[in-house]
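Hi V.,

You were right to ask for the full record rather than a summary. Here it is.
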Amino acid sequence: MELFLVFSTLLFVSSVSSQDVPYEVSLAQLQACPKECRCPPSLPHAVYCDNRGLKRIPIIPPHTWYLYLQNNLIEVLPEQALRNATELRWLNLNRNKITSEGVEEGAMKAMSSLLHLYMEDNQLTSVPAPLPAGLEQLRLSRNRISKIPPGVFSGMDHLSLLDLQSNKLEDESVTEQSLKGLSGLVQLNLAKNNLRNMPGGLPVTTTQLFLDNNAIEKIPADYFKGLPNVAFLRLNYNKLIDGGLPKNVFNLSNILDLQLAHNQLTEVPQFPTSLEHLHLNNNKIKSVNGTDICPVPASELDGIFDESGPRLRYLRLDGNEIKPPIPRDVMVCFRLLRSIVI
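Predicted structure:
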């Protein structure tokens, strides 16, 4: 995910620096640059106000696309604070002191062009509303959020990434009603919250689901029936036990990466042929039987070519009670296996 963020940042910067900005617009931006900030001539749509000890948001030039206000002391996001920045696409407010009460109702209403909103490491107790309808990424990690107001995501079908890790969300806060409207969501990060059950009502488009560091003990048998696109699933550092994983619960045709490290499993769970990476380290597993865990019957293995058979390439089993060597039947089943950590 970090590589994706760096890549997208480079694309944004490239589009700004390479764009043919009219001289009048560039000059107006430089002249209107707040004295507390920095406006590089080479990036005429970017305004840098980060690390300045600011307690309020300065008046921002009207042609600003990218505004950096991270690492300041801002507590309030007033309704009129960004009234001029109607073309804003990227707003970084990370590591300030903004509270939910400090986000005035119309503060983000004028930002109809906003695509990326970063409000990590603040003091929010609720997802701010109303949000710009065209938002594509919303990052709210490391706040104090315990509430997702019903309808807050209504009509936000462009939002593909929602990061709510390291907050105070409980089961009753994450429901079908609270997530309604996220018809284009791809990545949902709910790690490091207070969940005891698998969250309900997730968008059918969810591809990456991160639930590490919660207190989840079991997964309902039909949980993924409405989530056919899940390819990356992380449940590390939970309280999963063998009885909490129904036999075919991970029978997902698109799943590529399954992480169940630091739980209380004593057996390797069943998984489909599509899986490429399996993390089971730091559980209580004592042995691995290739015949039992192979997603294809042994009688069919001889007639299967590598690419049409089980696609497991990486298996991590360290931190369990397993002793080498790995049984030969594991290697017979998983012919694409390139790395085993034991």
